[in-house]
Amino acid sequence: MPTGAITQYIDVAQLVLYAFWIFFAGLVLYLHRESKREGYPLEIEGNKGRVIAVGFPSLPKPKTYLLRSGRVVMAPNPQPDAQPYSAEPYSNTPGALLEPIGNPMLAAVGPGSYAMRPDIPDLTVHDTPRIVPLRADTTLGIDSGDVDPRGLPVVGTDGAVAGVVRDLWIDRAEIIFRYIEVELAGATDGRTVLLPMNFARVKPRGIQVDSITGAQFADVPRTKSEVQITMLEEERVMAYYGAGTLYATPGRSEPLL
Question: Which of 26, 86, 190, 243 is most buried (most C-beta within 10 Å)?
């Protein structure tokens, strides 16, 4: 047998197959571990209260990321979840449903839950606020073939008029309207709140909103600025209207039968 002719007594194809299996198993393990950079460690309910669960494999080592805005974030984040909510379990059974305490629209549970995103505005590639009212960017406007809702009434699910449309807020990155700015009826200070476009039905005679009542517009979380909105404020505004789909009226959270 010539020197180096190992293929005559070693099955090279089988060795390659074994090497592939080992590589593929390592790849699956690596990807599964990397998938735990966000959302872990989990908090679950057990017989001894809330416990921390990681599972197999363990968490990857934290990495530090420098974002384009200059912020530095770490993943996985060793800090505990600071998500505020106001609710308690229906019973002592592990996994029991949460019952809101106080105003269910602001309890931050169920359809009203939200993520703790940074309390800073989302930016465009030009480092300008991404979502602004039309009055802050005169280069954009409403298409002549569409309904201009400014000045039209906003009606809640109970038929009550919540206010009138003051302006529209546009996403300058995607050129799409994100919010309707509503000036509340009866507010002597001209107070306004934002209404997400996906919760509004624009009609020639007004804006119909089915998720909340007319009176509940008064408690919509407000923005700190009149010309921009932060990512956390977006979460809270969307969560309020989402909560209305279940908690706006007593009948919505009751069984159908």
Answer: 243
